[in-house]
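Listing S7. Sequence submitted for prediction.
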Amino acid sequence: RELKDDWDRGVLSLLTSSSWSSSSSSLPARPARVRVERKRGSVKQSGTKAFLHSLAHAEGCAVDCFVDLVARFLGEIQELDSPEAFVSDALRVAAEEATHFERLAGRLPAYGVAYGDLESHDALSSSMEDTNDDLLARLVVVHLVQEARGLDVFPLGRARLERAGDVEAVKILDLNYADEIRHVQVMLKWFKVFCELKGNDPKQKFADVVRDRARWKLQALKPPFNHDARIAAGFDDDWYLPLATTATGVTAAATSSSTEEETGEKK
């Protein structure tokens, strides 16, 4: 939030290169006490306490994602007709993610822990590192796949907290959720702008990155999808349904088409 305030007050400038620096390989620093998994998928924790801790960690990583996006790809951002508008959007979202983190981290003492007491997954940071040299891939992998997936799992997460009887945590999730829809909307908007700048068709470029799972270390897009939230973000299903797979490996679009043919009805 201090970074955003400095930007809003004109203390930071796109022309001041020393204000924005990012090594081609380094990731943003994190608090020393935060422990992350040593390899992907190694964190296996259950319970409401661990769930809230993982949500807080994800929000903290999201702050890093937006700040790193500006610092790492500043050269390409400056090619935009309105680079200041992009930076303003990115830093505003980063500040909102910081608020999300504080809300969730502030709930952890009710469970006898503080942020950093439990090991956390590092999926977002790993994806940042995997896309350090490709802006469009960064926008797809981190913001249009992983952040959008956060919208998909929101109903299940909310229901989980309701079952646990944590009314305060449910309220926090609801507050954060409204912002997250807008965050996906903002990044989708800028992805389209950058695609136009680089001569790419946005939907085709999205599909190309998602299909190249080995290169970007992506998991397959799988249902369930929160279609209402995605539509609210301007993320229509013709972007992702043709790329999605079911548990059997069949594309979700093919399954839907087959059902329509069998029933004669459009779902």
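Caption to Listing S7: primary sequence and predicted structure tokens for the chain studied. The CA atoms of residues 131 and 137 lie 6 Å apart. Residues 38-43, 254-267 have pLDDT under 50 and may be disordered.
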